[in-house]
Amino acid sequence: MQVVATLSLKGGVGKTTVALGLAGAALHHGVRTLLVDLDPQANVTIATDVPATAATVAEVLDDPRRSVLRRAIAPSGWGDGLDVLVGAEQTERHNHPEPGAKQLIKLARALSRLRTDDDATDGGEPGSPAGEPGTTNGPGPYRLVIIDCPPSLGQLTRSALTAADRAVLVTDPTMFAVSGVQRAFDAVQTERQRSNPGLQPLGVMINRVRPRNSEHEFRIEELREIFGPLVFSGVLPDRSAIQQAQGACMPIQAWDTPGAREVSAVFTALLGRVLRSGSRSQPRSQAEHAAPPIT
């Protein structure tokens, strides 16, 4: 099971758009996925059209037992194969600026239940049906977990980095967002040294790029000079299809316009990079399986 956090320490750059786009790509390619809505704005929960649950991620952070986790996971309205650990405004109560180690480990402890829940496996390959969350079959197995972080470096984002294998740093090509990427990169490196030596930055995703915009071209070049090969070669164009699909509570992969197809291709490439990084990394569980190629 590969755990990926999407983060930025500047709001409004499209961090949630990247989390949703990556989840949509995983659904489209048959990669069973859990999407964790750690942002108190709960935009992921709204956009994926999940039914009401008896608990949310806030309760999971209060008490990371398996029974609480099951009550907080719901199937998305996007289709079978994508579940959501639902978010809520109440999650903000866990966003302490100076959390202790016991607070930071709770999300990782909850997600570890997905790795070790024997009731969730049916002996098939990862990605095969294993029952709906809350049933006796449990909430898995998942090949991929995507955590959408809030745009701040408090307990919630640090909890995600403590639990994650990889981090996708999201920015748009503006001056202030570039500095936010640097702070996010530093946060990944700090958390790696503090508590999670297996954590690695997967790369920098540039969102809302407009063609033939000199300011955008300048900032993209600046990012490539700072971060080198960590900057993904594919950038996300500024397309109205993204907002239209989110407004309709649909994955961008299901929005049949030229702009949507252009965006979807970027997310397919991102998914391939995520899965390849997982196959190269040291597995946390002997039950892990190699990821399939994405074409």
Automatic annotation (TrEMBL):
Record InterPro entries: CobQ/CobB/MinD/ParA_Nub-bd_dom (IPR002586), DNA_Partitioning_ATPase (IPR050678), P-loop_NTPase (IPR027417)
> Which residues does the UniProt record annotate as the domain CobQ/CobB/MinD/ParA nucleotide binding?
5-247
Parts of the chain that traverse the membrane: none
Q: Which Pfam families match?
A: CbiA (PF01656)
- SUPFAM superfamilies for the chain: P-loop containing nucleoside triphosphate hydrolases
What this protein is called in its record is: Chromosome partitioning protein ParA
Record region (Disordered)? 115-143
